[in-house]
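Typical record is below.
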Amino acid sequence: MTQSTRTALVIGGGIAGPVAAMALHRAGIEAVVYEAHRDTADGIGGGLSIAPNGLNALAVLDADAVVGEVGVPMAGMVIQNATGRRLAEFGSPPGLPQMLFVWRPDLYRALYAEATRRGVRIEHGRRLVDITETADAVTAHFSDGTRASADVLVGADGLRSATRALLDPAAPRPRYTGLVSFGAQLAETGLAPTDDKMHMVFGKRAFLGYQVLDDGSGGWFVNLPHRAPLTAAEARQTSPERWLAVLREAFADDDRTPALSLLRRTAPEELLVVGPMEDLPSVPVWSRGRSVLVGDAAHAPSSSSGQGASLAVESAVQLARCLRDLPHPAAFGAYEQLRRSRVERVIAAGARTNRDKAAGPVGRLLRDLLMPLAMRFVKPERMAWQFDYRIDWDERVTAAPGTVPDPIKH
């Protein structure tokens, strides 16, 4: 079969964009990344996990070692309540790569550097404002008056994707989960090492995650229930000093957890106000014409899922396989069939975790009673579906019947 897709425009230079470009390059498709911001995103974002399935997908691109250099191993997770009682403990299923905790700026720099090392061109200051098509190409129009054309366009521009809005003006907006996220990286936590395990504490009024390395350094994050929706910009209008006081108050009654100690060791300039936790339960239109969505633009779980970056990598690799083997209309249909049910299942699981984090007194009591029982009777293999996902790069992709997307309309 003669490959019909030779060139691609990738919109968005965050996490998904460089990975999508590397995957497309492996498929024999020349890809250029166009990023709206004029500068790189160094220093932006909090901590996140790369799950075994994400590492397996990166390994398809020979990029897993790059992430391993900036990540911290997570051998497992310890779930506790506000009294310090252990509710559950679990790790990755056997035979899979060990989960990693990584700070988003470090992940961004590593993937950006690896993509450019492989010859991917990344252009900054290119904010997408329109998409037009001819019979043979798709053209991206940018706010600075420039444009670029290729065989296909890949929207990897995140939760508030301009590409998604252009493909479907009625596309859903991000859903606020009722939680605001904070974090900090500390050179000295004052705590004993956690043996490569992330501790998750369901406090009475907020949720804490923390991990301490062998040298005493580490990091923490907090998900704080906040009824009224607010944007990241609005959250950052409150001073770090004030937010730290709010967080200390939220954990004032949780004196058997290290929350207050970690917060007191956090200087205002160290506090990361990440902002509202949001998700996209389902995006009806993933592709139209010669354009398609990938990563958070198509499927955005909340950070509670621990799967946002990993799902984005999986989708980038699967999309590249589909475009390698099929003409773009059939490729987009096959890609969506491969991905939609899995990512929406992960998003739903993350939403359930968010509800536990924002539980009231009765909900907390039920959670603390039922979680140990649930973990005792749930077999590990039933929880492995998120982590043991593997992609066979060499397997040929066949067209999904009846899944050819609608043409784009202008």
Remarks:
- The longest strand covers residues 175-186.
- The chain has two domains: 7-74+99-174+280-357+379-383, 175-278.
- The two ends are 32 Å apart (CA to CA).
- The chain has twelve helices and 19 strands.
